[in-house]
Specification:
Helix content is 4%, strand content 56%. The chain is mainly beta and 787 residues long. The chain is globular and about 85 Å long. Keywords: Cell outer membrane, Ion transport, Iron, Iron transport, Membrane, Receptor, Signal, TonB box, Transmembrane, Transmembrane beta strand, Transport. It comes from Dyadobacter linearis. InterPro entries: Beta-barrel_TonB (IPR000531), Beta-barrel_TonB_sf (IPR036942), CarboxyPept-like_regulatory (IPR008969), Plug_dom (IPR012910), Plug_dom_sf (IPR037066), TonB-dep_rcpt-like (IPR039426), TonB_sidphr_rcpt (IPR010105).
């Protein structure tokens, strides 16, 4: 080697040392949600070759990291992938401690990160079935974390609906509004999903239970590209709790107003010595009466699950859910509303305890589901999921309901008996492949769904029955006489087959521009068969198909801020397609345009989101009788829903924040038998605002104490589409909470509606009753956890 070569080598070495001198390191610990160290977690800085694995203490270190802003990715089998923006400063080591949430599906990754009391999550499974951050998702998505459910001491979906921006429970059953559209289980087949798979566990009269729920996700707007037929307002997805590698047991008990009691147990851990077979067992029982006369409900819930980890790349999960409900007065028929006779209504006239129902009314429901999920990751770029879900729901009830107008403080009623057996079988197969072409990165998702759902038994009878005095009811003559001349009967079975396929490409143009392109095709067929001559309809059949596109674009001017726009469509076959009524009819369709902003602040702990949208909904059925066919129907253009949503959610040191505001204008766009052009849509208030603030004391003599306040404002809403003057009044509801954590114990007190405001959830299809919200009530709970 000559002198020039030696000098050149010394210069290169010196420059390299100068460069390395500016570099820094990134280190930290990765724990499970139960704060247990996770070994062999893959930690990498995206778009670089820098990576590391955690040791048995969950510790990792990446050395010689050049200064700059990076996206850290952490993943391991059985836990959700995590992505976090990090800033590396010159010669300043960075320390980052993280937590991974349990993974419910390898391709449906959900992230719940941070250290305790977290209200914010970074990713969602429901939007794209891949692990892209919410910042890069071109649609409005909100995730209600386990901590929020715990602080609210929520037992059902209805308990947390007031915390979801723009979401409203229409009644004390299973009806909810999103962006002004009503979803009602199980009529809207994909309105609620479990781990992103169709097949609701609950029927019309039931509030979905949260015993085994890790988090609840809300995808606002049409979602048919991934979930097939559905309502235009959006999808609510339940993420269920899965088996964990570490032993854990939690017992909770609660008591509250109206003799309400609830107990539950949740156990998880390994079943085999090698740790490959994991289990989780969740059981619960609750019962409650009501502020209304005679009403009471009792629930039993059992949810065992098993996971077998064949390797770090392959696992199989089986989850069983069983929910039994027994009640007096199964349906919430609301309270009476007085017609003043001048086009106005008095919602405060009748006492809140009165109901049209009878003490002899009853309901029994048995719901069972089984979900088998196979996940395999071939390598870092290719993964496959196969999911089979089966649900069966059996329902038997007797019920009285309003059938006419109120006259002289008395009401005419009908009586119904219903014996029903429903099924839903869903098979989903989808694969995700990631690859790059230069500076452009692709994430391709290809999937096929087959869904068969319907009922094997639908024996329903509705009969006129006794008229009662509202203020002094006499129920002694409530058993109706059989009268075939006026009774209505259903006695049939129905099966619907739906098969669809979709392709989705998420494209990254460097770090600032992202695009989402997807398309789906669905074929739908329905056959309803009478089981006896009693059936009024005597059969029905329909077919439909649809092409459904979805496009989105995201721009990130900064790593923590994004701007997006999207276009998507949905479809839903008609519930009635009888040729005798003029059918078949084209399916209902909706298209949405949405633009928005998302931003993460305070070290990624506080998220902000603004969304503006417009939804056009077409092909609604309306009565169009003629002289030769009084049952004829026709399709009308439908409705238009537009609005604005603002959400602030997360943590600032000891303060937890969840607040939102939604403006919605949903109205008819044509005149027909269902209403006039410009009429307000039912149960769609213009304004909904919600807030929950909780402060957790740390490092003081009050360490372990948390206190919070919350509230909900809902502007007035039309409670009956045909009677626009039936306007449900606006309401303000205030709540308070406090908890104290002491070692393995947590004591919790929640007081709901502490001002005892009289408020209404919404209308109930008639202008004689409306759904009254709960007066002041409390829950006191205690939980004990063993790790």
């Amino acid at each position: 080697m000559n002198l020039k070569s030696i000098i050149l080598l010394l210069i290169i070495t010196s420059l390299a040392q100068i460069g390395f001198a500016q570099n820094s390191s990134l280190s930290g610990y990765i724990l499970s949600f139960e704060k247990q160290p996770l070994k062999d977690v893959s930690v990498s800085l995206q778009n670089t070759s820098l990576s590391a694995l955690t040791n048995e203490k969950g510790y990792f270190m990446i050395r010689q990291v050049p200064p700059g802003i990076y996206t850290l990715a952490a993943s391991t089998m059985g836990y959700s992938a995590l992505k976090q923006n990090v800033l590396i400063e010159p010669q300043k080591p960075a320390i980052l401690d993280l937590q991974l949430s349990e993974n419910h599906n390898e391709l449906q990754e959900v992230v719940i990160i941070g250290i305790g009391n977290q209200y914010k999550t970074n990713t969602s499974s429901i939007a794209t079935r891949t692990d892209i951050p919410l910042l890069e998702t071109p649609q409005s998505v909100q995730v209600i974390s386990r901590q929020v459910i715990k602080d609210r001491q929520a037992f059902t979906l209805n308990d947390i609906a007031p915390l979801m921006t723009g979401v409203k429970a229409n009644n004390a059953m299973g009806g909810f509004s999103l962006r002004g559209f009503t979803g009602y289980n199980p009529n809207d087949a994909s309105f609620t999903t479990f781990n992103g798979i169709r097949g609701t566990l609950y029927l019309w009269s039931q509030q979905p239970l949260l015993y085994n729920i890790e988090a609840v996700e809300v995808l606002r707007g049409p979602a048919s590209v991934l979930f097939s037929e559905g309502m235009p307002g959006g999808v609510i997805n339940f993420i269920t709790k899965k088996p964990q590698t570490e032993k854990r047991f939690e017992f909770t008990a609660a008591y509250g107003s109206w003799n309400a009691a609830r107990i539950s147990a949740d156990a998880t851990g390994p079943l085999s010595k090698n740790g490959k077979l994991l289990y989780r067992a969740i059981v619960g029982y609750d019962r409650t009466n009501s502020f209304r006369d005679y009403q009471k409900v009792e629930n039993i819930f059992v949810a065992p699950s098993l996971t077998y980890q064949f390797s770090s790349k392959t696992n199989l999960n089986l989850e069983i859910n069983y929910a039994h409900e027994k009640s007096v007065q199964q349906y919430d028929r609301g309270v009476y509303v007085k017609d003043n006779g001048n086009g106005t209504y008095d919602f405060d006239y009748y006492p809140k305890n009165l109901t049209v129902q009878s003490p002899s009314d009853f309901g029994k429901t048995n719901n069972t589901s089984a979900t088998l999920t196979f996940d395999h990751r071939f390598d870092q770029n290719l993964s496959l999921a196969v999911v089979q879900r089966y649900v069966r729901s059996r329902f038997n009830f007797a019920d009285h309901f309003v059938s006419g107008a109120i006259r002289n403080d008395s009401i005419s009623r009908s009586y119904s008996l219903w014996d029903y057996d429903q099924f839903n079988a869903q098979t989903s197969v989808y694969a995700n492949y990631k690859f790059g072409t230069g500076w452009i990165k692709h994430s391709i998702l290809v999937g096929v769904d087959y869904n068969r759902f319907g009922w094997s038994k639908n024996d329903y009878r509705s009969s006129p029955t006794t008229r009662i005095s509202i203020l002094n009811p006499d129920y002694t003559n409530d058993v109706p006489a059989v009268n075939p001349a006026v009774d209505y009967y259903d006695d049939n079975k129905q099966a619907t087959n739906l098969i669809g396929g979709y392709v989705q490409d998420q494209i990254s143009f460097g770090t600032r521009f992202k695009a989402l392109l997807s398309v789906r095709h669905d074929d739908y067929s329905l056959v309803q068969t009478p089981l006896s001559a009693r059936d009024d309809l005597q059969g029905d059949a329909s077919e439909a198909n649809a092409w459904l596109p979805r496009f989105g674009l995201v721009y990130l001017p900064l790593p923590n801020i994004s701007l997006y726009g999207s276009y998507t469509k949905s479809f839903a076959p008609q519930l009635s397609n009888s040729g005798g009524a003029g059918g078949p009819f084209p399916p209902r369709k909706a298209e949405q345009f949405e633009i928005g902003y998302k931003g993460d602040f305070f070290k990624n702990q506080l998220s902000t989101m603004v969304a503006v949208y417009n939804i056009n909904y077409n092909n609604i059925l309306a009565a169009d009788p003629s002289t030769d066919n009084p049952n004829r129907q026709t399709v009308v253009p439908g409705t238009r829903s537009k609005g604005l949503e603002v959400t602030l959610q997360g943590n600032i040191k000891g303060l937890s924040i969840l607040t939102g505001y939604a403006y919605n204008d949903h109205q008819l766009t044509s005149t027909s038998t269902i209403g006039k052009d410009g009429d307000r849509y039912v149960n769609a208030p213009h304004h909904i605002a919600n807030v929950l603030l909780k402060y957790n004391f740390r490092g003081t003599t009050l360490n372990g104490l948390g206190v919070g306040l919350g509230g909900r404002y809902t502007s007035d809403q039309v409670g009956n589409l045909a009677r626009q003057t039936f306007v449900v009044p606006s309401s303000k509801v205030l709540d308070a909470l406090a908890n104290y954590e002491m070692r393995r114990f947590n004591f919790q007190l929640n007081v709901y509606n502490f001002t005892n405001a009289r408020y209404f959830n919404g209308g109930l299809s008639r202008n004689t009753v409306a759904s009254l919200g709960n007066p002041i009530n409390f829950r006191f709970g205690i939980s004990y956890t063993i790790f």
